[in-house]
Fold each of these.
Amino acid sequence: MTTARGERPLPVGRAGGAAHQLLAGPARAVGVALGGLLGAAARVTGRRPLHPRGVVLRGTVQVGLDPGAPGAVEPCTAPAVVRVSRAAGLPRPWPDVHGLAVRWERAGRPQALLLSSAGLGTVSRFVLALRRDVTSGPLTTLMPFRTPAGPVVLGAVVTRRVDGGLDVELRSAHARGRWHRWGAVQLDPPHGPSVDSDVRVDPVVHCPDGLATYPWAAAVRRPAYRAARVGAPHPAPLPW
């Protein structure tokens, strides 16, 4: 059976697979409703309803650093484009939900990750968190990826270097497990004025090779992603 990239079938436990399939219907309804709300907000305000302002940085991504990590993928080092943004676009020093969108290519195929500020605990890794800047706390993918060993969540911890660049440690964990080193991103310092280009990151369609998206997660995300792309991006002061 052929499926869209990011939804390719991977072996999962029979009970776990059935449970995830049962979630697809309700998740689709939630996704449609969320997409409708975001689309209406975009039409009223004329700007992106989520992450309207951000900064685009370039650097290098490394994945597959620990072959024993949950959801480990084949090693790869590639140029990366990363957008750092605030979900509501609130000005500093107001806290906001921070986003980290990472895009790279592997053998000519796009790969993407989208992380938002959250916790690293067994429950908080699935819950959005308000932060003052992107370096003041961890981020996660919130929703798990599908792997042969079961659901895996990816996380990130961002630190600022003295030269103004950012170092991102990518981590992975099973739904309730401890975190392991999964990869890393080294981001160059920004050059010149803060810039924001139209960076499209879709972790459903361009799920990293070796991972897959559960149907229910794709059903929630797709309508929201489409609505969130309406409106032009705007440059913003550096969010860290």
Note: Helices lie at 14-22, 24-45, 215-228.
Amino acid sequence: MRTEWNVSPSANAFGNAVTSIDVDVLSKLFDSAPDVAFFVKDAAGRYVAVNESLVKRHGFKAKSDVIGQRPRDICQGDFGQVPSKQDEKVLRTGRPLQEHLEMQWHRPQNPVWCLTTKLPIHDSQGNVVGLIGFSRDVRVSIPAQEIPTAFAAALEEFERTLGAAVTPAWLAERSGLTSQKLARFTRRIYDLTPTQLIAKIRIAAASRLLRETNKPVVEIALACGFCDHSAFTRAFRRATGVTPSVFRKQC
């Protein structure tokens, strides 16, 4: 059966175009990516399409065993509750989750670190009707026990608060890592320095607020942890090539 969704411009990289996606084709495409768990979910957070990797990770034999279920239905404990709560937030707010570092369960007894991205799917009226996303394994030669859960918790706190006091030193302390080890760690996972990673998270949050709200630029600057309008404008232009005001007009 062929299923199609409309993805709004805010949820993809195709400018102002609205793209029709055949999720069955995408599902088959991602079947060839064993290090990625691909999924499409409806407005209730139930799987509409998945790839073979997601099925095998949870110990099932066929995609039909997963379709219609939620993460909490196929995985016990936090490994099922956390993604279900993430889905609920994306579906409720329409805000994407991007490159979120988290530990996931890979059966039979093999937790793995993943970077998860989830984008809201909108209908032609702009209503959120589902989400699409994937979790890709962290492909680095770092044993799982050397990736501290404190690092993921620190990033989650930062993404939630965007506190101005967050620096590489703050991130290292919260993660229980030395500055040198943190730098090697972020470079191997994200191909970014800690400073670049922090800037990326701030700019991504600011970009969303510029697109989705009418808040003044200076208010967005402060909300995203920049000390003032000028510092925000410089950082935003450096990252995107345009000023925040121009970016807002182009959205």
Note: The chain has two domains: 4-137, 144-250.
Amino acid sequence: MMKLAAPFCVLALAGCTVGPDYRPPAAASLQVPEAYAGPTGATTEPADLSRWWERFDDPLMTRLIDEASAGNLDIAVAQARLVQAREALVQARANQLPNAGASASVGRDVGAGNDRTSFSLGADASWQADLFGGIRRGVEAAGADAQGAFYNREATRVAIAAEVAANYIDARLTQERLAIARDTLRIADDNLQISQWRVQAGLASSLDSEQARASRAQTAASIPNLEQSYSASVYRLGVLTGRAPQALIGEMAATRPVPRGPDGVAAGIPADTLRQRPDVRAAERGLASATARIGVAEAQLYPQLRLSGNIGTSAFSLGGLFDAITGGLLGSLSQTLFDGGSLRSQVRSQRAAADAALATYRQSVLTALEDVENALAALNAAKQREAQFTIALDAANNSAILARTQYRSGLIDFQSLLQTENALLSARDGLANSRAAESSALVQLYQALGGGWTPIDSPPTARDAEPQTESR
């Protein structure tokens, strides 16, 4: 009766899993509000943000982002880490299965009239019975790590897409600012020539000429800085696409306007953002992994059952190998009686790691909400600034036209003309910056909402570990 009961006892114990069962934190405990404070669009339904850059209607920017998604080295690193995490899951699952091995040998004994050859075959197997679920918890933790690595790769993809767009916008803005500076320099050249003629004609003092010369030099001095800023943006775009810094100089040389996106984005509700953001989902998987590892540590406190067996044969001829087969079966039960508190310390340490993972997850949630709120505020501010700079540019342009006419006629001094010219330059530059700021705020909002990948509702599978050549 005891012999029959023993296997059933082992099976019953094998169904026991120590450690806490993971449950995702409720939204209420994460302080997720029902709506955003800033304007979120006419609808609360989240838009499809997987390829948001196409809404800017700039083919070159779209192509650069697609190339970065395929060739960026940060994404390649994240991809390799995903493959590593999935292989770690394979290894964890392998711990649930028996280990088996085989051996074979041939020997030759040489002696006085006693030469003979011996043959032997053997096989052995062992299995660690998962009595208290430590191995199962290890598989659970490795699975969460693999899913977290998948989300980390997608978070890298989201960040790279936004960085490419931001640098592309900066490059186009700098091209526009360079055009403004060069136009202003031509006007400064004209003003300097006019002031010199007036001085030669005795209609003005040399002060006008010196002021015109200083103004022209200051305008010319701003151009090298703008050229350096433009080059830095283009070099960064080259590296982001996985190529040499100078690779895009030719493609970016033609001046194009700053890409303008849609008037608004349907941001949805905060709960949608948390599901959309891959970095938040990666942090949640980190919490799941840390929780499972508490069970791995707790299982070490309980007895460990190991079953092993072997079978073998030996003979002095190949034909006699199977005449006599021997084997054995061994079951061993081990329990740590004293270790100075090391195992219990590991449990406490892992519980602290789970607490840290929970804090990290909560922080990622709050940071995601903050990012969206900041992006909404930045977009709203950029729209208001653009409206005011449009008015300012119209007024400054009219003032400059009148001032140039009056200066040629001798009705105003050069200082008054210089003030109107500076106001026009400031208005043109301000309008260009505000338009680019609106585009940049849109990119910031798309990134904050988690755009740039295709969210999945089910856990990622092995197929998701394969290299991605296209943006999701």
Note: The CA atoms of residues 241 and 331 lie 58 Å apart.
